[in-house]
Each structure stands twice: as C-alpha cells, then as structure tokens.
Design a protein that fits this description.
The complex is a heterodimer of chains A (117) and B (530). Chain A is α+β, with helices and mostly antiparallel strands and 117 residues long. Chain A has one domain: Trna Endonuclease, Chain: A, domain 1. Chain A has two helices and five strands. Chain A has a five-stranded mixed β-sheet, sandwiched between helices. In chain A, a hairpin with a 2-residue loop joins strand 1 and strand 2. Chain A is globular and about 45 Å long. Chain A starts with a helix and ends with a strand. By secondary structure, chain B is an alpha/beta fold. Chain B is elongated and about 90 Å long. The relative contact order of chain B is 0.10. Chain B is built from 21 helices and 19 strands. Chain B has two domains: 183 residues, Ribosomal Protein S5, domain 2; 256 residues, Rossmann fold (3-Layer(aba) Sandwich), CATH 3.40.50.300. Chain B starts with a strand and ends with a helix. Classes of the chains: A alpha+beta (117), B alpha/beta (530). Chains A and B meet through loops of A and loops of B.
Chain lengths: 117, 530
C-alpha cells in the first residue's frame, strides 16, 4: 500500500467512524490553493473541519504529534475559505483530528480528538 | 478529566515555599505546557521528564495535551529538582492503574537524567526543613542525598535511585533494582561536630577586664549586640574572639538553621552532619556588600552575616567599613534577617547572630579620654568624623556599649584571683538561657534580645520602681524609645543571670550602665563570680 493509499484508507475509516457518531459528511478531500481539507462534517449546529492522520505504527511518533500550530492555522484559513466557496455560514466551527493507527497486524486504533487548539 | 497533584519545594534564599504541581492530561493539540513562573531549568525539565518517563517503562501521553501548573502562581520558582514532581504527576494523571496513588503527604525532590535516574541537587536540607514545617511526612530525595535530608527529624526520607523506583514505592509494587535506603533520623548525626570545635582559646587567657567580660557574659546570655571601644591593644578583638567559647551548643532547631545556611553557601559538606557549635565570623572591613550581606552573581548566596546566624559576627574596626554597608546593617540588627531584592527575585536569609562591633576611639587608635594616657596625634576633625560613624542609627541598635582600657597594674584592694575559665561562664550562660526558654515557651523567639517590645511590656514588665527609672532616663533625654525597649530586654537578661524572678531597680541600673557605656560598679561583676 502506498502512502497515498494508506491516507485514503484512514480517511475512509475516519468518515465511517464519525458518521456512526451521528455526524453528517458534507465534503471530502476538498482542495484549493491554500491546501486540502480531509473531511468536512456537520455535528448538530457545528461545522467540523477534520484532519485525518494515519500511521502504520507510533515508532516514529504519534499521529497527534504531526499536527502542530502551523497546520492548525492552515486548517483555520481553509475552513473560512470552504465556507466562503460554499456560501455556508455556520455560527460554530470546530477543528477535529482523527488519528488512525493501522498496523500491519492487529486491530486498527482510532482516536477522535474533539476540538484541537 | 484525569488530574494529578504532587508537591515540591522552591527556595528563596534560605526560605522555602511548598509548591503544588498540578498535571492535567486532556484532548487537544499535543504538547506540554508549563505555567506558573518557572525558570529556564524547570522549563527544560519537560524534555528530561518525557525521555526519562519513556525510558523507565511508562508511556508519555504523546496523544494528549499536558498542562502542568505550578502554584502559587505568583511565586517565581527555580531549580531542576522540579523534574521528579512533574514526571510523577504526568504518569499518575495518564495511567489508569495509578489513578488511586496518594501523594498528599509527600514531597518530591530530584533532577532526572534521560535514562530515568535521579541526580543530586543543591539545597536539600532547607527544602526538607520546609517540607516538615508544612506537615509533609514523606520526602523522596536522590539516594546520594539521604544523609543530608535525614538531618531533619520527624520526616521519613526515601532515598531513591530512579524514577521507576519512585512509582513502584508509590503504587506499592515490587521495587526494581536495589531497594531504597530509609535513613535513620537526626540523632545519630547530632554529635558529629561536637566539643572539639571549641578552639583553643579561653576567657581565662585574659587577665583583668572584668567589666568587659561581664558585658560579654550578658550579651551571650540574652543574645544582645555588643560594641567594644577602646585604644589599640586593649584586648577588644581577643575578647570578641572568646565570645563563642561561652556560648552553649546549638539546639537541634538552631543547628538545622545554621547548617542549612552553610549548605546554601556551599561551604561545608552537609552530609557529614549538623553544625553544633555557634559559628564565629570576623569579616575584614574591606569586605564587599555581597560578601557581607549576601548576593553574588547567579544564585543568591548568604553572606557572612547569615553564616554567623546563632553565633557571633565580629566587625573589627567597624567605622572603616563602607558607609552604605553599615547602613544596610540596620535591618538585620533589628529584625534578625537579611532580605536581598534583585529584580524579580527576593531572597531571605536568617541573620540572628550576635553582632560584636569593635572600634578604636580615633583613627590612629591611641586616643584616650584620660589626657595623661593619650598618645593620639589625629587631627581633631578626623577624630570627629570617625566618631560620627560610631554614633547614629547603628549605635542606637546596639544593646551594650563597653569601653576597654589597656590593662593596668591590678588594684591592691582586690583579692588576687585567677581569671574564670570559659566553661564556668558558659554554664551560667546556659542556665540563663534555660530560664528564657522556659519563659518564652511557645513563642517564636528564644532569647530576651529577640522578644518584641510590646509583648515584653505587656507580659513581662519591670517592677514599678524600675519602670519609673527607665521613664526618667527617657524624659531626661538619656535614652531613646528604642533604647528603653533595649534596656528592658537587658534588664531581663541581667535578672536571668542572677536568678531574679523579675527585673527591679538593681537590674535596670546595671542595664542602663551597660547600654550607656558607663563603667559598672565593682560589686556587679564580683557578685556574679561569687
């Protein structure tokens, strides 16, 4: 599995996981010149911009650690751009992280961080 | 939300403060945030803690936001010894099987290495003393410093080698590697530096000067400051040097304080035991402000003033000390402590020693009030300038003033007597101090000289006639208000030495004479010897 394929696999898992939690998927892999949003969802009255990080193992650090202040700032700009482009005016916007650890053998671990930053 | 609380101590000079370390592990952007005025050494500890925890077989919460709060939040905190408290807090907050661990009664002191072992730190003794005074019953220290920490009685000292050992002890698991050493309490160290330090000087070496010797005895008994003036070669320095020989051994409490100051000054190996004899320091008049009062670059160190805590500080030829240093002596003379303020930082050290100020009557040292004996050739203006430094605010804070004259042929009407040896005098001083301890039981001071004036007036007044005598001296302009309080204290010491229940006219008369520099009637000190 290539890195891209692993990423897509993680995003699939994350989307399914969040939908089961009662969130509605609005968009996937939305791109503009600022970058890419993995998942856009609606959680009741809140618009959720979700970053998905997938790793085979945590030997080189946890997926959580890959999201730093720079990434967070970019996600904020992307969220604003997405709303502008789609003429959506959500009163509450939240940035989430779904960390997926999918080892070659054994169970996949999914950790949903509600509201980072 | 998992929150864990641990405790440690931070020092401001010799004064310690208990610091609460609260750790919260929660969802959010991954990182470790330290709040609460931590210095660089503590902040760097984040990386030491993380690696040490991982290398000790525990997982660091690398998927969570870790917030470490050091409180009280307004107190600046310093020292690498915070590592242990922070690491224990993080591990307890992030491991469910450690959620029930109780650390309320414990203080953690230690710097971590990357492999999770504990390095020794400075200031263990005053930190453990602080912990004890705040009701802490268990102290975790690096194994190498067990001996130092165990000088403090009534605290269980746990010497540990590694972070893993600390967690195992807390959780009640089997302790890895060798078991920690639980050290014995203070008693075994107390006599380590015993009588041997009574250096080979003795009061019996000095002939005559009975008047000054009596003043020395009163000063020693009540903890009073003393000024000796007199011409060169009269024996002022010799007298002052013998002051420690008539002081009793330090109490456990005093020994801890004195040793703690030495430990901060870095001048002794504390693990060798407590200092049990009163210290004696005689800085030269060219000493710097930092050397005398405390200070220095980097960490604030105690000066000679504090190192002479519970002992004797001799300032020989004190008018030659820099004027601003003499001014700075006012606070310690009055309050018994030195406070050094420097930017963000304030350090307080104890300085409750006895000050002995020695001075010549003039710059050349040959002046005598008796014109026949005076061989002084200083110009009058210089002599006056020198005098002006002796009087003033410092002199007002000195309890006893004595003039020492060069020894002359013994007076024929006195029986020939060998001078009293120091241990005889010391026994009387000890008895007088025991009377004071009895009287001041439960109070925060131990000696007459440290008793607050208002409390003294209220609870331990003079007899009516004696009080009237003091009032007369004040109204007559002979005494200041501050001087009146000092005479009151002195009168109590004189009473304690002569085993009188309450100071009356006789004691106040002696006290007034001691304070004003007036020579004492011969029977005062002969009565003492008898």
């Amino acid at each position: 599995m290539t890195a891209q394929a692993l990423g897509a696999y993680g995003e699939d898992l994350a989307a399914r996981y969040l939908r089961r939690r009662g969130m509605a998927l609005l968009d996937r892999n939305w791109r503009c010149e600022l970058g890419e949003i993995d998942l856009v969802l609606r959680d009741a009255r809140t618009l959720v911009v979700c970053e998905v990080k997938t790793r085979r193992s945590i030997a080189r650090g946890t997926p959580h650690e890959a999201v730093g202040p720079a990434k967070l700032a970019r996600l904020r700009r992307l969220a604003a751009r997405w709303m502008l482009e789609h003429d959506v005016h959500a009163s509450h916007v939240r940035l989430d992280l779904v960390a997926v650890v999918a080892p070659h053998r054994g169970a996949v671990e999914i950790d949903h961080v509600v509201g980072i930053g | 939300m998992p929150i864990a609380t641990t405790r440690t101590v931070t020092l401001q000079g010799a004064v310690g403060h208990l610091v609460q370390v609260q750790v919260d592990v929660a969802q959010g952007m991954v990182g470790t945030h330290l709040v609460g005025r931590a210095d660089a050494a503590i902040s760097e500890g984040r990386d030491r803690c993380r690696t040490a925890v991982s290398n000790s077989g525990f997982t660091w919460p690398a998927t969570r936001r870790v917030t470490v709060l050091l409180s009280p939040a307004d107190l600046p905190k310093r020292g690498s010894h915070f590592d242990l408290a922070i690491a224990v807090g993080v591990v307890c907050a992030s491991h469910e099987r450690l959620a029930s661990v109780v650390t309320d009664d414990a203080v953690f002191l230690g710097e971590l290495t990357l492999d999770g072992r504990l390095r020794s730190i400075s200031g263990v003794l005053p930190m453990v003393m602080t912990a004890r005074s705040r009701g802490i019953s268990r102290v975790f220290v690096p194994e190498t410093q067990v001996a130092e920490a165990a000088l403090v009685p009534d605290v269980t000292v746990l010497g540990v080698r590694s972070f893993a050992q600390v967690i195992a002890l807390l959780a009640g698991w089997e302790v890895p590697e060798s078991p920690p050493i639980e050290a014995a309490s203070a008693s075994s160290f107390l006599q380590w530096r015993g009588e041997g330090r009574l250096v080979d000087v003795d009061l019996a070496d000095l002939r005559g000067m009975e008047d000054a010797k009596f003043a020395l005895e009163v000063a020693a008994a009540g903890g009073h400051h003393l000024m000796l003036s007199g011409p060169k070669g009269a024996g002022k320095t010799s007298l002052a040097e013998r002051m420690p020989t008539i002081l009793p051994d330090l109490s456990v409490e005093e020994a801890l304080e004195v040793t703690a100051v030495r430990s901060l000054a870095g001048s002794i190996d504390v693990s060798e035991g407590l200092v049990t004899r009163p210290p004696f320091f005689a800085p030269h008049h060219s000493a710097t402000r930092a050397g005398l009062l405390g200070g220095g670059t980097g960490r604030v160190r105690p000066g000679e003033l504090s190192r002479a805590h519970c002992g004797v500080l001799l300032l020989d030829e004190f008018p030659l000390f820099q004027a601003d240093i003499l001014e700075a002596l006012r606070q310690p003379l009055e309050s018994g402590e030195v406070t050094i303020s420097r930017g963000e930082e304030t350090a307080t050290f104890p300085a409750r020693g006895m000050f002995v100020l020695a001075c010549n009557p003039c710059p050349c040292g040959n002046y005598s009030a008796d014109a026949r004996l005076s061989r002084c050739d200083c110009p009058e203006t210089q002599r006056r300038r020198y005098r002006s430094r002796i009087s003033g605010p410092i002199a007002d804070r000195i309890d006893i003033v004595r003039h020492v004259e060069a020894i002359r042929r013994p007076r024929v009407d006195l029986p020939f007597d060998l001078p009293e040896p120091s241990d005889v005098v010391r026994a009387r001083v000890l008895a007088a101090r025991e009377r004071q301890a009895e009287r001041f039981r439960g109070a925060s001071w131990r000696l007459n000289a440290h008793a607050p004036g208002p409390v003294l007036a209220e609870r331990w007044p003079l007899t009516a006639e004696a009080a009237a005598m003091v009032d007369d001296a004040v109204y007559g302009g002979e005494l200041t208000q501050r001087g009146a309080v000092r005479v009151h204290r002195l009168a109590w010491t004189v009473a304690d030495l002569s085993r009188v229940g309450r100071p009356g006219v006789a004691e106040v008369d002696v006290a007034l004479a001691l304070r004003s520099g007036r020579p004492l009637a011969t029977q005062v000190w002969t009565r003492q010897a008898g």
